[in-house]
Every structure is written in structure tokens, then in C-alpha cells.
Amino acid sequence: MNQPLTSKTQTKIWIVEENSVCSRLDYLAVEEPLELRLVSPPQTIAVTMRTPGADFDLAAGFLYSEGIIRAREDIQTLSYCIDFSIEEEQRYNIVNIRLKEELAPDLKSLERHFFTTSACGVCGKASIEQLKVRGCRLISTETKVSAEVIYNLPNKLRSSQGIFTATGGLHAAGLFNFQGELLKLREDVGRHNALDKLIGSAFLADELPMSDRIVMVSGRSSFEILQKCIAAGVPIVCAVSAPSSLAVSLAKEFGLTLIGFLRGQRFNIYSGKERIEV
Fold first, then answer.
1. What is the pLDDT of residue 112?
2. Could you give the maximum distance between any two Cα atoms of the chain, in Å?
3. Does 208 have pLDDT greater than 60?
4. Can you give the residue ranges of every domain in the chain?
5. Is the CATH code 3.10.20.30 the one for domain 145-277?
6. Residues 259 and 269 sit within 8 Å (Cβ to Cβ)
7. Which of 142, 156, 167, 234 could be joined to 29 by an S-S link, Cβ 3.0–4.6 Å?
8. Distance of alpha carbon 197 from alpha carbon 64, whole angstroms
9. How far apart are CA 42 and CA 97, in angstroms?
């Protein structure tokens, strides 16, 4: 049986500095395809490029964020594929998903994800309406969070990114409580994959909705990031970079607090200012 895929690998590099050249070994973040495959009926539902690790969390988070599953019991089993033609070799790039028998999922919403990249996204006002059709509700959490708590989130996220520290090439999604304590962190080459892993971990642990939590993502906040957080019931989303226009529209539509350009003792609030105490 072959070995599980690793999240980082070594390569030889040459460093040019002040007209001198030296070589050394450096770490790279691994990027490998992951196929999500339904067992019954047999069907590939998505292929994405990801960093190996927490693959079952990624599968569960992806299915939940897309509205294919709604409860933990909707998933009977998650397992890696076994190739019986090669002495039962484990195939760590394929996750088999067995849903409960009576579930008849509508897979039309997944068509855009077939052979996606790790940074794929989706846009369009029609998608906002689709979230309402799926039953995503207005986020009504009234608890306030101090600006001091928000200021400290990026440093806490970065200091806990073990693979990023080694490679410098990964996005992260962190889950915090309203006191600023880091509860969970997931890393991946794709920020959407990192968030799916985070939400999937909470889903498999029966910790949804996350109505008393803050999500912090590296990079920018896109429509896809907001869509996943709204599905999980997250009231506050923070990012180190800028949001897209559609992300802001989505945040306002569903009553979510959206923070961007969170760096040092400064950030911008694009929606839901009433939850932040200054």
C-alpha cells in the first residue's frame, strides 16, 4: 500500500544576492489533484487542486457549502479509493463519498467545479438568489466584538501556520471565538479549499452553525468565501486583503460583518459595523 501524500516537499534552489550565487534545499507546498467521487450512483462531482491533508474535511466542507448535504448523518462514509488491480493500492488523490441512501442530491450546482483550480471562484447576482433558495438565512448574531480582538487575529493566524512557515506558499483559514482565541486552522494552496477544510472539520464534529465564531482568511475575500461562511452561519469574516464587490453585496444581503485590509492596528469594515466596538 503506498504512502499518504505529504503537504510539503524539498527542492534545490539557487539564491542570488549581491552578485553572488549559492544553492540550498528549500521547501515547497505540495499541490496535487483531489477527485471527489460519489459511490452510489458512481459519479465524479469535482476535481480540485489542493495541498494534501484534511482531505475528508475538504470533501465534507465542500458538499456542505454547496448545499448537497445539510446534516452529519447525510454522509455514511468517507474513504480513500482502493485500486484492487494494483494489489489493493490506496489512492490518496480520490475520496469516495457514500451518502445516505434516501438522499437524492441535486448536483447541478457542482458543474462549475469540475476540473477547477485551487483558486476557483464564482460570481453573479443569480448566485445570491440561489443561496436564498437553499435556505441560507439572515445572520442575526447581536454579540459585539472589540476592535482590539480583531487587531490581533492576523498574528495569531500566521504564528500557527506550520506549513506556511516552512514553505511560504499556502493560504490559511482560521476559526476564532469572540474573545480572539484560535480554535481551528486549516492550510491549503487554495484559500477556498482551506475554508472548506475548516468548515468540514466543524461539520464532521457537529459544530455547525458557527454563529458565535469569527473566520479569518489569508488573501482576499471573494464571493465564494462569503458564500461558504454564510452557509456555515458565521457572523464575522476578516481578511488581510480586499473584498470583491460581489462579496460586499453578499455580506450586506445576509447581514454579515465583513472586514478587509486587516493589518496592524487598522482595518476596513465593509458591512455589519454594528458588531464591532471601537
1. 53
2. 67
3. yes
4. 145-277
5. no
6. yes
7. 167
8. 11
9. 10
Could you identify the residue written with the cell 472589540?
Answer: 146
Q: Is 202 within 8 Å of 63 (Cβ atoms)?
A: no
Structure pTM? 0.84
Cell of 177: 471565538
Q: Which long-range contacts (CB under 8 A, 24 or more apart) does 247-256 make?
A: 247/221, 247/222, 247/223, 249/125, 249/128, 250/128, 250/131, 250/223, 250/226, 251/226, 253/128, 254/131, 254/136, 254/137, 254/138, 254/139, 254/230, 255/138, 255/139, 255/140, 256/139, 256/226, 256/229, 256/230
pLDDT in tens, 216-254: 999 888 888 999 999 999 999 999 998 988 888 899 899
pLDDT at 119: 45
Q: What amino acid occupies position 125?
A: K
Amino acid at 192: H
- Compute CA 84 distance to the chain's CA centroid, rounded to the nearest angstrom: 32
Mean pLDDT rounded to a whole number for the chain: 85
Q: What is the rounded distance in angstroms from the CA atom of residue 278 to the CA atom of residue 270? A: 15
pLDDT grade for 97, boundaries at 50, 70 and 90? very high
Distance, in Å, from the CA atom of 240 to the CA atom of 171, rounded to the nearest integer, reads: 11
Q: Pick the catalytic residue: 22, 81, 120, 123?
A: 120
Q: Is 136 a catalytic residue?
A: no
